[in-house]
Write a structure and sequence with these properties.
Layout lengths: L1 H23 L17 H20 L19 H16 L3 H6 L1 E7 L5 E3 L2 H7 L1 H4 L2 H8 L13 E3 L6 E7 L2 E8 L1
Parallel strand pairs: 1-5
Antiparallel strand pairs: 1-2, 3-4, 4-5
Keywords: Signal
Length: about 180
């Protein structure tokens, strides 16, 4: 009798524990706590679902994805190699033409510029005041021209446009977009 009672108690406790676990996995909100879905009006939620379905249908029709170079990146590891190559191509073009304005447009300020007596340049205007002759040294131009931009690998620091020497132009994600964040000589 004692064994039957003990097994009955174990079975009841097991069922109670199972019930508690299963109900614990249900809604665990406190009164007044809103989920993200509840805070969105039904019309917006329906539009989002319809837009998502339309985007998916459109994506199925086209196999070619546009290259994103202008924003929305979380970090350097979110940048695909094609986008890095496109951005590096813009930097190489600006350097080849010694176009300081174009290089400034691709730059996030403040930016490190490793020239003697320079270090950090705070604004685009200050960067332009340095002059193309000072920024585009022969060593930097040669390094950027010979850089392999077809095989970029992301790192925490970003990407480096260089032939392997000390002179290089570094870029990475700044405020969600690709931008130059350092020039080394």
């Amino acid at each position: 009798m004692r064994k039957k009672l003990k097994s009955l108690v174990v079975m009841v406790l097991g069922l109670a524990l199972t019930g508690a676990v299963l109900t614990g996995c249900g809604e665990s909100r406190q009164p007044g706590q809103e989920t993200q879905q509840e805070g969105i009006p039904a019309s917006i939620s329906e539009e989002t679902v319809q837009d998502s379905a339309a985007e998916k249908a459109g994506a199925d029709e086209s196999t070619e994805k546009p290259v994103q170079t202008s924003g929305g990146y979380e970090d350097n590891f979110a940048v695909d190699s094609e986008a890095a190559k496109v951005f590096a191509g813009k930097v190489k073009d600006a350097a080849a033409k010694k176009d300081l304005d174009a290089l400034a447009e691709l730059t996030a300020f403040p930016v490190y510029v490793g020239l003697p007596d320079v270090d950090v340049v705070e604004t685009k205007e200050d960067f332009l005041k340095l002059g193309a002759d000072a920024v585009f040294t022969d060593e930097l131009l040669k390094s950027v021209e010979n850089a392999d931009i077809d095989h970029f690998q992301p790192s925490m620091a970003g990407f480096s446009i260089s032939d392997g020497g000390t002179a290089n132009i570094n870029f990475g994600v700044v405020d969600g977009a690709l931008a130059i964040n350092g020039i080394n000589y």
